[in-house]
Amino acid sequence: MYKLILTIRYLLRRRITHFAIVAVALCVFIVVIVMTVMSGLVGNFKQKNHAFVGDCVVGTPSLVGFPYYEEFVKILEQADFVQGASPVVKNYALLSTPDGRSTRPGVEILGIDPARHSRTTSFPQTLHYHSSQPDQAFRPVYDPNALGCVLGIDMVLPRSVQGRYVHPDGPVRGSITLTCFPLNARGAPAKAGTSLAETQVFYYSDDALTGIARVDDNLVYIPLEQAQLLCMGGTEKRVNAIHIKFRPGVRLSEGRARVADLWRQFKQGKESTPNRFLLDTVTVQDWKEYRRASIAPMEKEELLLSLLFILVGFTTVFIVFVVFYMIIANKRKDIGVLKSVGASNLSILALFEGFALAVGLAGSLVGSFLGGLFLAKINSIEHWLFEHFHFQLWDRTIYAIGDIPNRVEPGVLAVIIGCAVASCLVGALIPSYLAVRLRPVETLHAGRM
Q: Where do the domains of the chain lie?
């Protein structure tokens, strides 16, 4: 009982203890805000990439592609763990306008079957005019017989400072010309003579908002058959990838392993077929592995930020150490009295470590409450700052970010509070050990240092 009474007394009456609580609260406040925003950005970015490609991808990095994909897609569609499979042609093209005034090299084209791709990815949710009928995505409403395309939204519309796009009532009539260099199965140009390129005119049908900046600014969806004509020379049909979505309840690792087994068996059955060597470059990856190049930089930034906050934790340890050293230096007489009436060394250690626990909990709760309150108002605060001072944390005309993430994850908050309390316990450990070593006779005789 005396340990609880002394802990409450030290918390309420010692002003230096209030300084320690404020220091812990400030550290927790900063960490909660920054980690919530950063974790939210990374989580949203991963979610968008997952939705963009599906759960698993069977593909090759080669622009030549691989054949016999239709047979494997049928095998996948018959599997009980697969919800959808979408063959895709991925390549690069030169984009130009009909008047020839504007050209854009290195535009990424994605040839898809819109019905299959809609069952596999978030393609329907990205469309503006055809979201309810994604299978009609390549049919312009102003001319259903024209060959349509879907453009990344940043290629069509400007992004406002609030991060919004203003669409007209319907897609504006317009066309683009895509020029590619088709390759045969050996990787050589499929067309001989002076004209090595294949050119096709497409009409603007819709735009797609994936929320991934590089995709929305550089991607053109076209029909799968047209992509094969533009990019894949030869008589046999080839694709670069097959995107797969698993049924609900199928774990990612389990689904990927089962797809890999199916692909291994399929490839073994094609040992004596023409151009079988193209199958050797094909790999089976889950969405995280497939989009690793895009996701890894943000994950590294998040890791670096976590390491920086570990240094903040060391600062908390040092502050608590100084505070407890000063408290123990001024409470030598109290320690001597406790020891003289029979308090053991373990009890003295438990007293001050319990006091450190109380400081850590009090500071963590205050910091968490203030951090949550600030996060709840963070978008309103940024909006007010923009209206009065034209300040934005992220320029929405450059970054594909909507509202600032402000949802505090219970798991992240628990880790932050746990680390704050642990820092207090570690910071008080050496002063508590010094209190244990004090001898009652010396402390009562000296009275004070």
A: 2-46+295-446, 61-281
